[in-house]
Design a protein that fits this description.
The protein has 140 residues and is mainly alpha-helical. It is built from 5 helices and no strands.
C-alpha cells in the first residue's frame, strides 16, 4: 500500500514539473520572438522608449524635476545642476542611497541621449535641405 502512494506522488510530481518546464519553454520562446520582432522593426521609438536602463523620458524628467525637452532642446545647465546636487545628496558615503544615485545618473543620461538624438536629426535634416557640403582641407 505504501509503495503505491509513493509511486503516485512521484508520478504526480513528475507531471507537474514536466508541465512547468514546458510552460517556461513556451514563454521563453515567445519572448525571444517578441524581442526579435522589436529589434528588426524600423520604428526607432520602440527601441528608444526605454533606452537608458528602462527609464522613459517622462520618468527621467520627474526624477531630476525638469521639464521634458521641447523639440529636442532643453536647458542642460539646469539639468546638470540638479543632477550634481541630487547625486551628491545621495552619496552612499554620506548616508545616501546607491540605488537612488544610480537612478539619478540614468535619468541624466536619458535626457542627454534624447537631446543628442534630436540634435543629430536636426543636423541630418539641415544637411538634406541645404545639400551635402564636404569640408575640404587644403595644404597651403
Amino acid at each position: 500500500m505504501a509503495h503505491r502512494i509513493i509511486t503516485q506522488v512521484i508520478i504526480t510530481g513528475t507531471r507537474v514539473l514536466g508541465r512547468a518546464f514546458a510552460e517556461a519553454y513556451k514563454q521563453a520562446a515567445a519572448s525571444q520572438q517578441y524581442a526579435k520582432q522589436a529589434g528588426s522593426s524600423n520604428s526607432p521609438g520602440m527601441a528608444n522608449n526605454l533606452a537608458s536602463s528602462g527609464l522613459t523620458l517622462d520618468e527621467a524628467c520627474k526624477i531630476l524635476n525638469v521639464r521634458p525637452p521641447q523639440g529636442g532642446k532643453t536647458d542642460m545647465e539646469s539639468v546638470m545642476s540638479r543632477f550634481k546636487r541630487l547625486f551628491d545628496q545621495n552619496n552612499p558615503d554620506k548616508g545616501g542611497s546607491f540605488y537612488l544615485q544610480s537612478k539619478i545618473l540614468r535619468a541624466r543620461e536619458r535626457i542627454e541621449m534624447e537631446v543628442r538624438e534630436a540634435a543629430e536629426a536636426a543636423e541630418r535634416e539641415a544637411e538634406v535641405k541645404n545639400g551635402w557640403k564636404p569640408k575640404v582641407w587644403k595644404d597651403r
